[in-house]
Write a structure and sequence with these properties.
Layout (H helix, E strand, L loop, with lengths): L10 H27 L8 E2 L14 E9 L6 E5 L7 E6 L5 E5 L10 E7 L11 E5 L3 E9 L4 H8 L3 E3 L24 H11 L8 H15 L3 H23 L4 E3 L2 E3 L10 H10 L9 E6 L14 E5 L8 E11 L14 E3 L12 E6 L11 E3 L6 E10 L1 H4 L9 E2 L2
Parallel strand pairs: 6-7, 16-17
Antiparallel strand pairs: 1-2, 2-8, 3-6, 3-9, 4-5, 4-8, 10-11, 11-12, 12-18, 13-16, 13-19, 14-15, 14-18
Helix pairs in contact: 1-3, 1-4, 1-5, 1-6, 3-4
InterPro entries: DUF1214, DUF1214_C_sf, DUF1254, DUF1254_sf
Organism: Cellulomonas xylanilytica
Protein name: DUF1254 domain-containing protein
């Protein structure tokens, strides 16, 4: 019996398959960078220096530590978490799609907020300390990103950061980072994404409910690409004329949008929203779930145009905001686009946060000013320098947000273009 002929996928199927696959490519690219470029190694903690802005979309208000955990059916890996009180912290565990598996902290684990966490492969039964909090991983690899709030005592936060330790037994079998094509945030991958697609997906169990359908779509496109150079060229053309434009259009406003801001309330657990997952992995990889942090991305001024570093903008918060919206803290950070790194400026000021001594207006409101030079109306602490002649993006983070934000009833004020 002859096999069914391989047919050309529809343009819509190519676009859907590409958007699905792109999220996995982004995380795999980060894995390759962390392991092969930075060379930290598996089951080793990288204690990021306070104030470090080396990685994408950094939050400069916490002491970070990160690690790639690798387990197998015979071996578990443990993380020791110190006792932390009086400041925000969480141990965020993610899969290789950027989906959040768990957050360990005093809110989610009142009976085990610190001490030993044991990571094991789901379905396996390695020997584990009976007093450990066990986290089952859907695949053999996971990413840990722990945050400890700096508050006004960064030295104490760093001391706590250094008390996190990881322990791995000998003999864990670890696959090298998967092969992915070279690409950047300005030069996205073309048909080469599908040449590695099926092998890449085979390394990555996916919690997305509709994962099987999307995975089959990726395989179908990959099979067609392999039939001939003409087929590959046809798929490449669809990627560059339809899939990439659709993705980039999405980055300019996704999820819930208001006042020039966007927010994805599905961040960290995306359901079947392949576009939101790809966008978040692109611009804010390792985003947490909204119960821990809500991320409002500001990209449009009141004039409807993308934010321009040569212009002056005012964000005027109502009395007591954003403080009244969080149980932990908030921060507003400015990033370059499209690479989402902080922008150098003479003040070395990249964000404004809960610890800032902001000047209030006569009516009780608080204005944050965005401009290349400090506006005459702005108190020094209220000014965030912008990159003249370049675009930029904002990220307002609310850590442990209160009900109005969690329910979507509150949104950041408009980013008012003043001049």
């Amino acid at each position: 019996m002859s096999e069914s002929p391989i047919t050309q996928p529809s343009d819509d199927d190519v676009v859907s398959a590409y958007l699905y696959l792109f999220a996995r490519l982004l995380v795999a690219r980060q894995e390759n960078y962390d392991i092969n470029v930075e060379g930290v190694g598996w089951n080793q903690i990288k204690y990021n220096p306070v104030g470090s802005a080396e990685f994408v979309n950094p939050n400069l208000d916490v002491a970070y530590l990160e690690a790639w955990v690798a387990v197998d059916a015979e071996h578990a890996v443990t993380l020791e978490v110190p006792q932390i009180s009086g400041r925000y912290y969480t141990v965020q565990i993610m899969d290789v799609w950027g989906e959040v598996i768990a957050n360990v902290n005093e809110r989610n684990n009142a009976d085990h907020p610190a001490g030993t966490i044991a990571f094991r492969l789901a379905g396996s039964t390695p020997t584990v300390d009976p007093g450990a909090l066990v986290i089952d991983l859907p695949g053999p690899k996971a990413k840990i990103l722990a945050r400890v709030e700096l508050k006004d005592t960064p030295d104490a936060a760093v001391a706590l950061q250094q008390q996190f330790t990881i322990h791995a037994p000998d003999g864990v079998e670890i696959a090298p980072p998967p092969v992915v094509p070279d690409f950047t945030n300005t030069q996205l991958p073309g048909v080469e994404a599908f040449r590695v697609g099926p092998a890449l997906l085979a390394t990555a169990p996916d919690a997305m409910p509709d994962a099987a359908r999307y995975s089959a779509m990726v395989s179908s496109v990959a099979n067609y690409v392999a039939t001939s150079d003409d087929a590959a060229a046809a798929v490449d053309a669809v990627i560059h004329t339809k899939a990439v434009p659709a993705f980039l259009a999405g980055t300019k406003g996704f999820g819930t949008q208001r006042n020039g801001w966007s927010v994805a309330f599905s961040a960290g657990r995306f359901g079947n929203d392949v576009l939101a997952r790809a966008i978040v992995d692109y611009g804010g990889i390792w985003a947490n779930v909204v119960d821990e942090a809500i991320y409002y991305v500001g990209q449009l001024g009141s004039d409807g145009e993308l934010l321009d570093g040569s212009q002056t903008y005012e964000i005027r918060f109502a009395s007591d905001e954003p403080d009244s919206l969080v149980d932990a803290f908030w921060s507003l950070t400015l990033y370059s686009v499209p690479d989402y790194h902080v922008v150098a400026n003479p003040l070395d000021r990249f964000d404004i946060n809960s610890e800032a001594s902001l000047t209030t207006n006569s009516d009780g409101t608080t204005s944050i000013w965005l401009a290349p030079e400090r506006p005459a109306e702005a108190g020094d602490a209220n000014w965030l320098p912008t990159p003249a002649g370049r675009g930029f993006s904002l990220n307002l983070r609310l850590y442990v947000a209160r009900a109005p934000a969690l329910r979507g009833e509150w949104f950041p004020p408009v980013i008012q273009a003043v001049r």
